[in-house]
Design brief:
With 489 residues, the chain is an all-beta fold. The protein has helices spanning 5-8, 19-28, and strands at residues 43-54, 57-65, 75-81, 88-94, 105-113, 116-123, 135-141, 147-149, 162-174, 177-186, 191-198, 204-209, 220-229, 232-240, 256-260, 276-277, 285-291, 297-302, 317-318, 325-330, 333-338, 349-361, 371-378, 384-391, 397-402, 407-411, 426-430, 436-443, 446-451, 456-461, 470-488. It has 2 domains: 5-341, Glycosyl hydrolase domain, family 43 (Tachylectin-2, Chain A); 346-488, Jelly Rolls, CATH 2.60.120. 3% of the residues lie in helices and 48% in strands. Strand 25 (397-402) and strand 26 (407-411) form a beta hairpin. Bound molecules: beta-D-fructofuranose (FRU). Beta-D-fructofuranose binds next to strand 1, strand 5, strand 9 and strand 13. Beta-D-fructofuranose binds at residues 46-47, 63, 74, 106-107, 122, 167-168, 222-223, 286, 306. It is found in: Cytoplasm. InterPro entries: ConA-like_dom_sf, GH32_Enzymes, Glyco_hydro_32, Glyco_hydro_32_AS, Glyco_hydro_32_C, Glyco_hydro_32_N, Glyco_hydro_beta-prop_sf, Suc6P_hydrolase.
Length: 489
């Protein structure tokens, strides 16, 4: 969709008469509205922002452009939850349009200080020549939920050596000091992350670039996030400009992490291992984490990608967030499990089991558009086995394990309305295991797949017709024992 600058950089109150009603009508009649994912009321959603536990509730904001399904004047939209499973829409959190966020309240994060929730975000501005001038701003939410913007930036310039692609502050505290990482681009056109520190969240000093081995790894790193897990330092980020390599980096943009020694806050040095992708599906980007009330590290991502079109664009809305996932580290690798609170979404359940031998089978009661499905395959000698879901006469999404290549394969070529086919319709990832457990969360237009308790995750939008509700289990070239449970959501 091509929209003019004037159309993109409009605020809500600049909607022409009837425009919002038209968008809302389109949304109401959309066949692909989600039922238990955070999605925009209308308009476009992108990155999760400001994810924080504050006064007994999780607050989670997202980037929102209300007046169309393209990227324009970004607001922060506010949602909250007591249990990470059920979310309430609160409304606009941060409204752009002031001197230091004239062209959007871009991504950022939250931290609790002195009983208030501090939200640090990038103010996007453009001058008359359309040059960007990014500012890092603060907005403070009090216990009544009122959010007040501080009227001046807390970081008002880009240090020498970096371009105006300088954004997405993620704040944390350590030993009584505050730190934040920002996504940046060096003047030589490569991406990196920089570090700032502060005593009070208002005055920040530049500590330098986080020094990593990845000195030439894409042209921009967006949405960095740093935290420690099990005594290890983890840096998440979304690098842009990485070329596909075998099964890796197949999407237009990537998201992943490096793990190593805790970040040295004096030298800004991070000793680390290889870059690893967080998600092996088609639609995942710009994730953000927070610490849960009990210390668990919880991640939420944008179930979408920059510069991608989706079939809901013609229905007045675009994109949603992923379900919250708990992160753990095992042997230098992040494992991601759906947070246990999601069990609260389970309604009536059914079970089924069979020894499959060169056949495709369904179990009684296994069907639907919105459910959680757990399926274990054991005693396998079949060459391939797996699940077809959101299946009908002509449509199916196929998740399988190929024992010869030892790969998990997600095929959305017959999933329904085609999406981003120029980037391929199959995703594969290597996994060496005897037994395979698939846990799927299926919503009207998405699937999140956790393989072997989150060793690998595939997150994808799919756009099947409403008639495609079947679920079938299969084994080819041998046998596989299959035991499945399904809960409607
Ligand atoms: C990532 C991103 C961020 C930016 C925001 C704008 O998707 O480009 O870098 O802050 O989206 O909406």
């Amino acid at each position: 969709m091509t929209a003019s600058r004037e159309e993109k950089y409009r605020k809500l109150e600049q909607a022409v008469p009837g425009e919002l009603e038209k968008l809302q009508d389109l949304v109401k009649n959309c066949p692909w509205r989600q039922t238990y994912h955070i999605q925009p009321p209308y308009g476009l959603l992108n990155d999760p922002n400001g994810f924080t536990f504050y006064q007994g509730e999780y607050h989670l904001f997202y980037q929102w452009f209300p007046l169309g399904t393209f990227h324009g004047m970004k607001y922060w939209y506010h949602t909250k939850s007591k249990d990470l499973a059920h979310w309430d829409n609160v409304g606009i959190g941060i409204e752009p349009g002031d001197a230091h966020d004239s062209h959007g309240a871009y991504s950022g994060s939250g931290i609790v200080k002195d009983g208030k929730l501090y939200l640090m975000y990038t103010g996007n501005t453009r001058d008359e020549q359309w040059n960007r001038h990014p500012y890092q701003n603060l907005a403070i939410m009090d216990s009544s939920g009122a959010i007040t913007k501080i009227d001046h930036p807390v970081i008002d310039s880009v240090p020498p050596g970096y371009t105006d692609h300088f954004r997405d502050p993620k704040v944390w505290s350590s030993n009584g000091e505050y730190y934040c990482v920002l996504g940046a681009q060096r003047t030589n056109g490569t991406g990196c992350v920089v570090l700032y520190s502060s005593q009070d969240l208002h005055t920040w000093s530049f500590k330098g670039e986080i020094s990593t081995k990845l000195t030439d790894f894409g042209y921009m790193w967006e949405c960095p996030d740093y935290f420690e897990l099990d005594g290890q330092g983890v840096l998440l980020f979304s690098p842009q400009g990485i070329e596909p390599n075998g099964d890796y980096y197949q999407n237009i943009f990537q998201s992943g992490y490096i793990v190593g020694q805790p970040l040295d806050l004096t030298t800004s040095k991070l000793e680390h291992g290889e870059f690893q992708e967080l998600d092996r599906g088609f639609d995942f980007y710009a994730q953000q984490t927070t610490a849960a009330a009990d210390g668990r590290r919880i991640l939420v991502g944008w179930m979408g990608l920059p510069d991608a079109n989706y079939p809901t664009d013609n229905h007045g809305w675009a994109n949603c967030l992923t379900l919250p996932r708990e992160l753990t580290l095992q042997g230098g690798k992040i494992h991601q499990r759906p947070v246990r609170e999601l069990e609260k979404l389970r309604k009536q359940g059914v079970k089924g089991e069979a020894i499959l031998q060169d056949e495709t089978k369904s179990f009684a009661g296994f069907e639907g558009m919105t459910y959680e499905l757990v399926c274990e395959f054991t005693n396998t000698d079949a060459e391939q086995f797996g699940i077809e879901f959101r299946a009908g006469e002509n449509e199916k999404t196929v998740l399988s394990y190929d024992r010869n290549s030892k790969k998990v394969i997600l095929d959305r070529s017959l999933s329904g309305y085609p999406v981003a086919v120029e980037y391929g319709s199959v995703r594969r990832c290597h996994l060496d295991a005897e037994n395979i457990k698939f846990q799927l969360y299926v919503d009207t237009s998405s699937v999140e797949i956790f393989v072997n308790d989150g060793e690998e995750v595939f997150t994808s939008r799919i756009f099947p017709s409403r008639e495609s509700t079947q679920i079938r289990f299969f084994a080819q070239g041998g046998t596989a024992a299959c035991r499945a449970s399904l809960w409607k959501i």
